[in-house]
Amino acid sequence: MKKYIAQLTLLSALAGCGYKQQSATAQKPVATDSVGKLVPVVITDTVTHDTDDPAIWINPADASKSLIVGTDKDVNGALYVFDLEGKVVNKVANLKRPNNVDIAYGLLLGGKPVDIAVVTERKTHKLRIFSLPDMKAVDNGGIPVFEGETTADYRDLMGIALYTSPAKEIYAIVGRKTGPTDGTYLWQYLLTDDGSGKVKATLKRKFGKYSGKKEIESIAADNELGYIYYADEGAGVHKYYADPAKGNHELAFFGTRDFAEDVEGISIYKTGAGTGYILVSDQQANKFNVYKREGSAENHNEHTVIASIPFSTLESDGSEVTNVNLNKRFPKGLFVAMTNGKTFHYYDWRDIESRIVSK
């Protein structure tokens, strides 16, 4: 997990560091610091305790009014909501160590489609679910998960990914602080209306190999291609089918030699129906490793690193990305990552893309 080290002082200098402009494309110079790390175009307001994981909500009426939802991880933690300028515009307080958050669109509640943010609340062993953009609770106070587990830390929630199937069913794939090594580390729940306009969760499967080395936190879902990826921190990245009906066999295990230490935040940037990039945080190296979303030409489940990009984030273990044109600052999308120092960093996707293309 994140180590609070002397590098924290870097954050206070970023805003005035005098970016070195390196022209990677004819359209836009790339913002880097003096040692070549990508620097953010926006740094958010600070949270009270400890940023951990962000998610992006795209406003369907006006993309420029989209929001970033991020966790403040503490026993008296919160969900913060930021605008595209990094300003706090809303907050859900009194959450008991909220860890990771993800967003899905159009869950039918009371007969109406509702966008939702789902956060793992570690100390209560519950999922907390809030409607977007108003951040109103729609979970009857929380939904218990990993029920029946009695081993220490087996119910302490960490990772969350929401998968939307072709039939528009929304599933929550949930991880915990530690768990068994028998292939049942992750539990997958179907989210539906409980009959009163609130959310209920029905367990559909238990799956997922675990090395036993550290923990599994970051989980990501590729809705269009139907895959789940998750970071086994001391080992690598696992890949499975997202649809429970397709079975629990592992499709790929990659990145086993690509990281200095912990394998962390996973984000998926889409360039086409089946193409794009998977970005994975090399936490202690302060880099993000990049893999092709579509795999290799010979095997779509073969993922080899194609770029390793240094970022100004410090010990990042949570990130998210979108390819949507949000505004003039983020015309090809936004990448957001947590960093030590109680903030989130927003990056212009064009800066990241230039580093991938140049490899």
TrEMBL record:
GO molecular function: inositol hexakisphosphate 3-phosphatase activity
Top-level taxon in the UniProt lineage: Bacteria
Residue ranges of every copy of the BPP domain listed in the record: 22-356
Pfam families in the cross-refs: Phytase
SUPFAM superfamilies registered for this protein in UniProt: Thermostable phytase (3-phytase)
Gene3D superfamilies on file: TolB, C-terminal domain (2.120.10.30)
Membrane-spanning residues: none
Protein name according to UniProt: 3-phytase
